[in-house]
């Protein structure tokens, strides 16, 4: 069994990003918008800021109180869209209970939508467009697959989880690479029928240690996108002890996909700069 660690993938991406930044004629800036009080989003924002600064991308932090209104967020989205010094925008989830994802998603300029919240970008993912922005976690999975030379064309893949943040766009991204993909979700009657047939199993549910020995095919590659805390320890979707003697390759938690996501976010900021510059030159 080989551990597919995220660190070398992240380091390769950051090296490439730094090289690309040297060719840009402007200083990139990412705006991170979040609501105060949510610890996971605050932690991610901190990690993202550290990553951006490490490659030379400025960060504009916008933090609202929990009683923020939709009107406030709409005004912020409009302001950031029009600000020429801002090239990427990410609205951290979750939003307050009175505000839905779709209330915000369509407000973000698709060219600045570096975490693929806008349905325009979800459509571009479906169309396999060169202009598509991708959800950072889903793209991180593809970056890991490519780094370790895992074949996708014609491969039997099973993705467990169908969220708009990871599962659904990832399924389409894999299909775009000519993989044969089964997608399991909460209504799937017996997921082992699908997971145990897969040469590549990707789990992105947040249901800790749900993937057991009977879910995996011998010699399969398993990518664990889940993350949570169990008995005070970081834990993923995969019961590592249960599967480690069966699978061929598996990502660790922590130290797997999660360590790549902020590097992908930086990669998308660079792409946003390039898209905005192209459109400006075309005018």
Automatic annotation (TrEMBL):
Annotated GO biological process: L-histidine biosynthetic process; methionine biosynthetic process; purine nucleotide biosynthetic process; tetrahydrofolate interconversion
GO cellular component, one term: cytosol
Catalyzed chemical reaction(s): (6R)-5,10-methenyltetrahydrofolate + H2O = (6R)-10-formyltetrahydrofolate + H(+); (6R)-5,10-methylene-5,6,7,8-tetrahydrofolate + NADP(+) = (6R)-5,10-methenyltetrahydrofolate + NADPH
Location of the Tetrahydrofolate dehydrogenase/cyclohydrolase NAD(P)-binding domain: 135-274
InterPro entries attached to this UniProt entry: Aminoacid_DH-like_N_sf, NAD(P)-bd_dom_sf, THF_DH/CycHdrlase, THF_DH/CycHdrlase_cat_dom, THF_DH/CycHdrlase_NAD-bd_dom
Keywords assigned by UniProt, alphabetized: Amino-acid biosynthesis, Histidine biosynthesis, Hydrolase, Methionine biosynthesis, Multifunctional enzyme, NADP, One-carbon metabolism, Oxidoreductase, Purine biosynthesis
Residue numbers binding NADP(+): 161-163, 186
Domain Tetrahydrofolate dehydrogenase/cyclohydrolase catalytic: 4-115
Key word Nucleotidyltransferase present: no
One of the record's GO molecular function terms: methenyltetrahydrofolate cyclohydrolase activity
Subunit comment: Homodimer.
The protein's role, per its UniProt record: Catalyzes the oxidation of 5,10-methylenetetrahydrofolate to 5,10-methenyltetrahydrofolate and then the hydrolysis of 5,10-methenyltetrahydrofolate to 10-formyltetrahydrofolate.
UniProt protein name: Bifunctional protein FolD
Gene of this entry: folD
């Amino acid at each position: 069994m080989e551990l597919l660690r995220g660190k070398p993938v992240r380091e390769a991406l950051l090296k490439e990003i730094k090289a690309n930044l040297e060719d840009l004629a402007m200083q990139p800036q990412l705006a991170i918008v979040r609501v105060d009080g949510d610890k996971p989003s605050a932690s991610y924002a901190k990690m993202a800021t550290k990553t951006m600064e490490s490659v030379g991308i400025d960060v504009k932090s916008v933090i609202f109180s929990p009683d923020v209104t939709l009107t406030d967020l709409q005004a912020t989205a409009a302001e950031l869209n029009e600000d020429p010094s801002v090239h990427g925008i990410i609205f951290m989830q979750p939003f307050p209970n009175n505000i839905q994802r779709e209330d915000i998603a369509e407000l973000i300029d698709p060219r600045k939508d570096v975490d693929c919240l806008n349905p325009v970008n979800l459509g571009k993912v479906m169309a396999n467009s060169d202009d598509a922005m991708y959800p950072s976690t889903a793209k991180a999975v593809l970056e890991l697959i490519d780094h370790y030379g895992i074949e996708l064309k014609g491969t039997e893949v099973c993705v467990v989880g169908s969220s708009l943040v990871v599962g659904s766009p990832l399924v389409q991204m894999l299909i775009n690479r000519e993989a044969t993909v089964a997608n399991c979700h909460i209504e799937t009657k017996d997921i082992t029928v699908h997971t145990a047939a897969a040469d590549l199993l990707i789990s992105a549910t947040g249901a800790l240690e749900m993937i057991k020995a009977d879910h995996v095919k011998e010699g399969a590659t398993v990518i664990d996108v889940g993350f949570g805390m169990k008995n005070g320890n970081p834990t993923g979707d995969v019961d590592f002890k249960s599967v480690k003697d069966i699978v061929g390759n598996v990502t660790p938690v922590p130290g797997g996909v999660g360590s790549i996501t902020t590097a992908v976010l930086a990669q998308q900021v660079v792409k946003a700069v390039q898209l905005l510059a192209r459109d400006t030159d075309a005018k």
